[in-house]
Amino acid sequence: IGLFLIGFSACNSSQYGKKVNEPFTGNKYESNNNWFRAVGKGTSVKDNIAKSKADMDAKTILAGQLNTSVKKVTDQYLGQTENENAADVADKFQSLAREVMNTEMADLRKFDEEKYFDGEKYTVFVAYEIKKNAMFRFLKKQAKVSDKLNDAERKTIEELIDEELERLDAEDVD
Questions:
Q1: Non-local CB neighbours of 72 within 8 Å, separated by 6+ positions
Q2: Under 8 Å CB-to-CB from 148, ≥6 apart: which residues?
Q3: How many CB atoms lie within 10 A of CB 164?
Q4: pLDDT tens-digit readout, 103-120
Q5: Tens digit of pLDDT for each residue in 50-79?
Q6: pLDDT at 9 over 80
Q7: What is the dihedral of CA 142, 145, 151, 154, to 10 degrees?
Q8: Strand, coil or helix: what is 121?
Q9: H runs (alpha helix) in 81-150
Q10: Residue 147: burial class (beta carbons within 10 Å; 0-12, 13-18, 19+)
Q11: What's the N-to-C CA distance of the chain in angstroms?
Q12: Residues with Cβ < 8 Å from 99, sequence gap 6 or more?
């Protein structure tokens, strides 16, 4: 009987170990058609450092999502245009997006946070979100005041953003 129990318990365990359910999982914490969302996790013996790590982790994920979204918009633009300066405009648009992610955004919202202490170290989970159309409106505002764009580039980038905003607004209605 002892051999049977050992064999049976071995069948139940995974070669990777026990599955862990972390907080902040599920639809509420995932990006969708309307929202960029990200969850960050930070661990440290000091709670403020754990919180800073979690914040940075989530904001890095958001920056990656925005970068991917902007790249998709610029790739579509490059595929549709005959403009000889299209690549320059696309590069400047992506550069503008990177600059925007390096600034504090007014519409970025922390919507959840939990802190754990296991007796030795703190683990902090944070969740941030920003509405996609708010992010693109902020990008458009930055394009208007950017001194790195000439008038033609600014106009093209604003048109790209307007098209993306129309697409997002149309999806928001559905």
A1: none
A2: 92, 95, 96
A3: 22
A4: 666 688 999 999 999 999
A5: 999 999 999 999 988 888 888 888 887 777
A6: no
A7: 0
A8: coil
A9: 86-101, 132-145
A10: exposed
A11: 60
A12: 142, 146
